[in-house]
Write a structure and sequence with these properties.
Elements: H1 9-20, H2 25-32, H3 36-45, E1 48-49, H4 60-65, E2 73-75, H5 83-88, E3 99-102, H6 114-120, E4 129-137, H7 139-146, E5 155-160, H8 165-168, E6 178-181, H9 187-194, E7 203-207, E8 210-211, H10 213-220, E9 229-237, H11 242-250, E10 259-264, H12 271-275, E11 285-289, H13 295-303, E12 311-318, H14 321-329, E13 337-342, H15 350-356
Helix pairs in contact: 1-3, 6-7, 9-10, 10-11, 13-14
């Protein structure tokens, strides 16, 4: 079609699914003001809705009153919503909805409460992913959530209170594969989680929590035999426990582990040397942000038997320029992505970098 030719309604509607990913709350209201024919066609085509306005919540009444017959992904995480507005989503007739990401609340107000989850009961039987961001969820809310049967649920991201972990793991979600828990879980809460024996887990992410050797020992013994990705981000480990903690981590019996991401508060000199001894033959991605690594750690990375490694990120400071050169020259046949963090003072000019490479 040339620029001189008129644009038909069908041509415009053909682009709607792609453009809708970026529409905001104002866009909802614009569509609401169009003809019924345009709205009907849009509802038949759109598969993803991601309002992104922080200024005001999306037009919930428009979302729920229109029959988005092909809607599969609804993400309202970019909008402030109160529990009443979130509960209104339950009236949405979206038979194909597979992914729901709920919004953060306004200051001092949660997006979700137990009544919200009770409204969701019996809705969206095909749901595969539920992500609840920036909202602490207490035990009453968790119990209401676990009463919902989503047999296809594979991904769950939630920030439960520590005393709600045991209840959360009782959810009737037999296909749960991807679990993210965050926001200040205590050592006791993490132990309750590891005791629940979710043997189907393939991806586990723990955020902003404290861990001891007791917790790590429980997770190692939890028989996550299908675990392929382990992400521990902004995790605090007591200094006196760190050697034992990393030793236990390296003993994890996860034959399918392909991705390891560690961000440990304050780091630990000697930790990489311990991790390099782990028998994770499928490891392809290693992302380490440990802040403080020793010369032995640097050498351990160079000599690690990570024959399948494709992605390596080391955010700790490398103080030995010769080790940097050895690491760059290391023969990892499958390596596609290498990021190294080094102190700026070791590269006084471009020629120094050139000599390393």
């Amino acid at each position: 079609m040339t620029s001189s030719e008129p644009v038909s309604l069908s041509d415009v509607l053909h682009e709607v699914p792609r453009l809708w990913d970026f529409i905001d709350g104002k866009g909802h209201r614009v569509l609401l003001g169009t003809s019924s024919k345009v709205r009907k066609h849009a509802c038949e085509l759109v598969t993803k809705i991601r309002p992104s306005s922080y200024e005001q919540p999306p037009d919930i009444s428009h979302l729920t009153s229109s029959r988005w017959t092909q809607l599969q992904v609804l993400d309202v995480s970019g909008s402030y919503m109160d529990p009443h507005q979130t509960a209104q989503l339950s009236s949405g007739a979206w038979p194909h909805l597979r992914s729901l990401t709920l919004a953060r609340g306004r200051p001092l107000m949660w997006t979700c409460n137990e009544n919200v989850f009770r409204e969701f009961k019996g809705k969206w039987p095909l749901l595969e992913s539920l992500i609840i961001v920036f909202n602490k969820v207490d035990i009453a809310q968790v119990k209401a959530l676990t009463e919902i049967e989503w047999p296809n649920l594979k991904t769950l991201c939630v920030e439960p209170d520590s005393d709600a972990i045991q209840a959360l793991m009782q959810g009737k979600w037999p296909q749960l594969r991807d679990l993210s828990l965050g926001n200040g879980l205590s050592d006791d809460g993490l132990q309750h989680f590891s005791e629940c024996r979710r043997s189907t887990l393939e991806r586990l992410q723990l955020l902003h929590c404290e861990m001891t050797t007791r917790t790590m020992g429980c997770i190692v013994e939890a028989q996550f035999s299908l675990l392929g990705e382990l992400s521990l981000v902004n995790v605090a480990v007591q200094y006196e426990d760190r050697a034992g903690w990393f030793t236990l981590l390296a003993q994890g019996r996860w034959p399918l582990l392909s991705t390891l991401e560690l961000e440990i508060v304050d780091g630990f000199s000697g930790c990489v040397e311990i991790l390099a001894s782990a028998n994770w033959t499928c490891l392809q991605t290693v992302i380490l942000d440990l802040c403080d690594i020793s010369a032995a750690d640097e050498t351990a990375v160079v000599e690690a038997a990570w024959s399948n490694i494709k992605h390596l990120t080391m955010a700790g400071c490398f103080e030995n320029v010769q080790v940097l050169r050895r690491l760059y020259m290391r023969k990892w046949p499958l390596l596609e992505y290498l990021t190294l963090g080094a102190s700026p003072e070791y590269f006084s000019n471009i020629s120094d970098m050139a000599r390393i490479l």
